[in-house]
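Q: I have two molecules that I believe assemble together. Could you output structure tokens for the complex as a whole instead of separate predictions?
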Amino acid sequence: MKSILFLRSLCLAFLMALAVPSAFAGDTAPGAAPKFLLRVNSTNQLYEFSKPWIKKPPFSKRGIGALIDGGRILVTAELVANSTFIELEKPATVEKSTATVERVDYDCNLAVLRPADPDFLQGMQPLALNGPLQVGDEATILQLEPNGDIARTLGRITTISVSGYPSESGALLLFKLSAPLQQRDGSFTVPVVREGRLIGMVMRYDVRNQSADIVPTAVIRHFLAELDSPAYQGFARLGLAFAPLRDPQLRRYIGLQEPGGIYVSDITPRGSADAAGIKKGDAILAVDGLPLDQDGNYEDPDYGRILFSHFTNTIKHPGAIVRLKILRDGKTLEIPLSMQVANRENAISETQISDTAPKYLILGGLVFIELSRPYLKEWGNKWTSGAPQRLVYFDAFQNELPPDRGRMIILSHVLPTPDTLGYEDLENIVVTKVNGHAVKSLADLSEAAKNPVDGFQKIEFEEDPKLLFLDAASIEANAEELKRHYALPALERL
Amino acid sequence: MAAALLLPLAAIHAVEISKSLVRIEATSQDPDYKTPWNPGNVISGVGAGFVVDGKRIMTNAHVVSNARFLTVSKEGDANPYVAKVLHIAHDCDLALLAVENPAFFKGTVPVEFGGVPQMESSVSAYGYPVGGTRLSVTRGIVSRIDFQPYSHSGMDSHLAIQIDAAINPGNSGGPVMQNGKVVGVAFQGYSGDVAQNVGYMIPTPVIHRFLKDVEDGHYDHYVDLALTYRNLFNPAARRALGLEDGNTGVQVGSVYSGGASAGIVQPGDVILKIDGHTVSSDGSIELEDQAVPLEEVVERKFKGDKVRLDILREGQPMALTVTLREPWPFKLQSNLYDEKPRFFVAGGLVFQPVDQNFMDAHDPSDQRLNYLFDYFIADGLHTKRPEIVVLSNILPDSVNAYADEFRYSVVDEVNGRPVKRLDELAAAFGEASDFYVIKFAGGGRPIVLERKAIEEARPRISARYALKAEKNLEK
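A: Yes, here they are, computed for all two components at once.
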């Protein structure tokens, strides 16, 4: 199998060299002003999740976008995350145009931009996408010199594997390219080419190991295909966690005869696997007839032995049916599974919030928010140990809480007012009920607060102090004063 | 001039106290929670003590904790005498020692105890701190009288008196004197880089309670209401709870299941009086002309004693009676002494119950374990499992080649039997079975050990890792 693949890739390279001589020659000529690269300057501004009515100071990220078919400029999602202003710049002429984000998908760390002025791209030539690569193949990282010329760095693919992406939402195919990349102006997003065709976008660079992480064309193609579909859905998720089945004692215990297979160790509530009836403890032996090894790898025709989630999440699109061969209670089953995108609508804690203003509600001076990972990350790099540990636990293990728990509503902190006398020190406690009504979202809280009981807002918590009261009429009367006093633009954003 | 006057006074006290003062040399062995089958490191230290009624020596619990060998010597007699611990109270850091040779007490004078000294009044601390081997006296004033955490157990707070006399290691257990009477036992302080001249002594109400508790020959531990309360400053809250304007009453927060108040007091109750003492809205009461937290009423009581609470529940006045007892789950979060670490080894997998000592030794970064431990009481987790049993270590061998990822995972069940205590895990492994299937909290994949593989590995692992025992189920 391996040797055939090798031959095939050789043929391919040979064919390509014949088929696209012009583009090949064009971008290897040293110093030539590139016709498919643009500088992208994005001004981004994050919300302060602990004071959600405030935006942090804006900052700039500079990167290089690749013009692809359809007048789209491809960049990484991280470059334009929470962008307030995006500017495109032609490297040679320094012509500028503002741009908008046509689509950003943080799962695959990709975004496409369009210039405000459609004529801006005139005279430019889109970059074609390359086919599959092998470990050991060479590729060129393209950066720009200050004068607009291309700076090339040759590297070699060292690893092709399914790995974690920055969004933490899951793993997708990733190339590692060994190359001595220099820190240059605008190197946040950098295209990588081989023989005149795009093979991916650099999204991270490890200086110590001189290794670049690259979003490969397989992922880019999926993203672009979704973009051209009637409704963008992105990447479907299996909604399960698995463990390798290497331990022979465990294999004998579950009666596994076949050489491969993986152990389903967790199921995401309401995910694809959950809907298909996959259970914890099932062993997955094959997907669409492709046998899995003990680590969950299958033999991919393009990339060799890689994790099967590449097949289900990237090769397949949302809505596709895959057939899982399962071993359950000693019996082999075939279970069809419909690949669906992750449904975070009822998530207990949102793990990723970008380009969206966080919700909040202030009652009398008590600041309520919905628990989210970005909120916990306000505690800095060591947030997993520095943030309130009870909340970190609920965020990390939210799959284990009752699926109908709803969003976790937090009393984040208190802006002291006469109405909150005695409550000043309360922070990061979980709200259960307001005026007797269970709250599963800030909207619930807002609704419940409209009906005070006997003139009081009665708020109950999981932790101490268990309950507190506010004078409903008084907080209503003092609302404007509170806004003015603490310079709050609004007392709620739902 | 003032100094000249003070010196003879101090000298007089030093002569008086020298007949009561005792230097204690302790050799202790701290248990090893990382390799629990090993006996642990032997360390030695010096502390102070003093003779009290009944031919006993009082000192700090932390001076004689985990002691293997104790000697005491008195001023003017170079001979060390062998001593042993008579009673030890880790929750208030006090201990009583006995000396086998009655000759020791010849010429000694038991101390007299005074009351709680006045603020700003001067006191002298006696002991054997660093800086020399002979008796040291330091002098200071009473700076503060308040509840303080007692760091020896790490979980208990009692009345403590802050003094500005230098208190250093070796002062521990020594008497603090005023007018020839003992008004406290020096026990803890801050190191100089945290705060200057802040030392603490255990005041006589705590000492008297300890002496009374052990009168029946047994120390019973402090008792507790096992509830939290909160100030009632907020006018809206006061009206909502049916209180008049004014400054009385606190609102009950958590009532810990397993504690003395469980099923009697409810969250949201307003405590108006405790044993007839009116409770202020900050939780303080007036006791012997001093404002103290309402806990002080409970502090002076013993196991089985009753506390009367006058409360307001949903606007209705009620009188409740709580019979006091020690809330057991809190022990798990206290530093423990004079206990042997418990463990169970199967197939090179080391299982241990989690307590504060375990957490100090291992300092695991496992999020689930940290949550279960930190919120064991607050989230009522102790009602579901009296002990947290974890896979604490793996002694690598082919039998457990695939268990690495499970370190610090919390055991839920073995062969379908729930494991809520270490002895339940041991019992499950004691039953004959071809497979032992260990399931962990969170429900990932199980560890499966075949009986045959365990048995084959047993001698191998014992020899390779110098495993002196495969289990200890006794504290």
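A: One point stands out. The domain at 360-493 of chain A is CATH 3.20.190.20 (N-terminal domain of MutM-like DNA repair proteins).
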